[in-house]
Amino acid sequence: MLLVLALVSMGDRGDPLAARPAAHPSPSAAAKPSPTPTGPRSVERKPVKLHVTAATGDTTRMVKELRAATHRYEGRDAAFVLTFGKAPDPGAGQAYAREINKSLHKARPDMFTDATTRDFWNGGVSGAADLEIYFYTR
Question: Which pTM was predicted?
Answer without folding.
Answer: 0.71
